Amino acid sequence: MKATVILSLTLVFSIHFGTTANFSINYYLYTNENITQPVLLTPSTYYQVSIKHPTKIVVHGYYETAEKIWYQNLTNEYLLKGNFNVIQVDWSHLAFDNYKISSQNTQIVGSSIGNLIITLHKLYKLSLNNVHLIGHSLGAHACGYAGKKVKLQLRERLGRITALDAAGPLFEFPFRILQGISKNDATIVDAIHTDGGVFGREDSIGTADFYPNGGKRSQPGCNVKDLSYPLTSFEDLLDKKQFLWENVHKWENKTALVCTVTKRSYTYAEVYKKTNALANFFHKYDQVKQSDVILIGLPNVPEYPIISLGSIQAGLIVSTINPFYTADEISKQLVSCKPKVIFTYNGLYPTIKKALSIAKQAIPIVIVKTAVDEQLPRETIDFKSIIQGNTKPEFFQEKDLNDTIFLIYSSGTTGIPKGVQLTHKNIVSNLQQMGYSKINCLSEPNEFNQEVVPVVLPLYHCYGLIICLLNGLRFGCKLLTIPKFSSDLFLNVLNNYSPTLMHIAPPIFLFLLNNPNVSQQSLHNLKTLICGAAPLGAADLMRFHEKNDKINVLQAYGLTEASPLTHIQSSYITNGRKTGGVGYLLPSTKCRIVSIETGNELLANQKGELLISGPQVMKGYYHDSKATSDAIQNEWLKTGDVGYYDEDNHFFITDRIKELIKVKGYQVAPAELEEVLRDHPGVEDAAVVGIPHAKFGEVPKAFVVLKSHTKTKSTDIQDHVNKSVSHFKQLHGGVTIINKIPKSPSGKILRRVLKET
């Protein structure tokens, strides 16, 4: 390992160092001569740069630091080859803002690098021809600005600039806002394009441009999809005890949570204060200790994040349960996770008591009152009395990054529910991934504006809890809690609160599309809809956009075992919202597609099972090592979902392995037939399952919900499908008309219920 000389320059705009800004750019010099103590570079120590040796200046990209592994690998390779000055530029203080601002900061960084080169040239006769700048992503454009500055002041060009996937957004035609790198910035400008049309440039920018495999990220023979913007700053963020609250002082007087039924609300300052109060209560409560489980049995109410975050702050594990479960269902989770405290409300209290009796457990119960005049059941604790307690000093239980903080039970749509252990690292990583500028759809509040987000997805589910609630709190949104979905309540929220963004599942999308009371005025302030749980049909999307052409509809994919998000579409990328797709991988996330039959790796446009790897993948299933080893193999999570990626690395989910129907040895995807069914003008909703067949083994059977006032017959629907698909995909099991498709609260079709019908 070569020794390091640390060069730290206050950002300068004058060769005489007469003017400085209030931030710094750090330069790290690696040579074969400097092998001892790092030296801080000042004008009097520039001699550390050996003028007789070629100089390589390496510049990182957006959301990167000098700690990137490729920085060190590249440096080591140069020094193994001979004598070089390798200067690593760390401009991370300017690269961790939102993407647009960081893009503009490349001009500042380029100016600073240019000043350094000009100074070394004037004072020590540094040969400009021996200077080679190497920049990745936004760093490539910083190199271009450095070259422009040198040429402007010295009337001479640098020897060479290498652009590694120069950033595309804001720099690429026809959306060019900033000038960026060009072929005139050095004698030789060579550019390597492997991310064109996504986050990199497609157009020629150098004297020599290289396009491996057409400049796309799909490399021949390579099935592992990994975006070119990995985030390595998670560990730094994990050290922040108040990751969610680090900016709360900016909007402490803004409304954080509102109950859309009772109208009770909390500001951000109040939520923060009450969270601390609950943590302090648990710190002094002798019936719990670190890593004990608390159980939340509540609908969507404003107190949900206070209980969750206060418990985690106290070092406890938070488990959630469906408040509409039966006593038998709740008792099974009680036996599994053995909570020490239960938070619930009067409406669920009798069921909780019955479940405790079945489980033969006696556990303290804390009641969250949802109305002022509610009576407290005997032998229960009033939640309000706890959170009115002392909030000073703030108590934070020290936790390891891999300690479990959430224990979320899978829905059980395809088997017995299992407790998914999500760690501190998992959750912070996924929140940070969602905040990446080319994905994030939320803006922080200011004096005049605040994002308004209805919390309609259930908070006991990972989708609602992490993506909607916690991510919304992180960005200072006004969150509107909806305890239970009803048409009237939801319409009231749309018309009276003017949401700006909504996280939804397909049933809610169909409600927005088909309910005659949802007008354009109802959605006049809505900018973005993000839909998960199941694919949206092409015909439904087209109809929605015909009515609401200014609303971005983004589809996403994830699973509880991945905290939950792994893929999402982007409105910032050309072709970033392909119909039927779920978008691109999140930062630091990898995905492989493997054959269901052989396990062999597959390439673009070949369907197989998705395997996921990333910092958001769960620790494992609670007290179930076998299920964990079956699900996670060599750090790859087996999703059980079938899909593929195309030549642009856009992913598509087609079905679940366990839901595929095998007809005469052929695999039939229910989702494909369901989309054909919904294309019929008389069909409101549809589901397809496989049923036994004496000759074919299995055949598809459809269950459909008709649109109101239609006289469509089941035979008409069957003929519609059979004309559209191959013989083995046809509905040989027939069509049954029903009133409602049974679905889980997250919007997934409960096929096992239909099979029992």
UniProtKB/TrEMBL annotation:
Subcellular locations according to the entry: Peroxisome; Secreted
InterPro entries: AB_hydrolase_fold, AMP-bd_C, AMP-bd_C_sf, AMP-binding_CS, AMP-dep_synth/lig_dom, Lipase, TAG_lipase
Gene Ontology annotations for the cellular component aspect, listed alphabetically: extracellular region; peroxisome
Keywords, comma-separated and alphabetical: ATP-binding, Luminescence, Metal-binding, Monooxygenase, Nucleotide-binding, Oxidoreductase, Peroxisome, Photoprotein, Secreted, Signal
Enzyme class, first EC level, given as a word: oxidoreductase
CDD domains registered for this protein in UniProt: Firefly_Luc_like
PROSITE patterns attached to this UniProt entry: AMP_BINDING
Stretches assigned to the Lipase domain: 22-227
A GO BP annotation: bioluminescence
Signal sequence region: 1-20
Record GO terms (molecular function): ATP binding; lipase activity; long-chain fatty acid-CoA ligase activity; metal ion binding; Photinus-luciferin 4-monooxygenase (ATP-hydrolyzing) activity
Boundaries of every AMP-binding enzyme C-terminal domain copy: 672-748
EC number in record: 1.13.12.7
Reaction catalysis annotation: firefly D-luciferin + ATP + O2 = firefly oxyluciferin + hnu + AMP + CO2 + diphosphate
Main localization category: other
Limits of the AMP-dependent synthetase/ligase domain: 245-622
Xref: Gene3D superfamilies: 3.30.300.30, 3.40.50.980, alpha/beta hydrolase (3.40.50.1820), Luciferase, Domain 3 (2.30.38.10)
Similarity section: Belongs to the AB hydrolase superfamily. Lipase family.
Protein name: Luciferin 4-monooxygenase
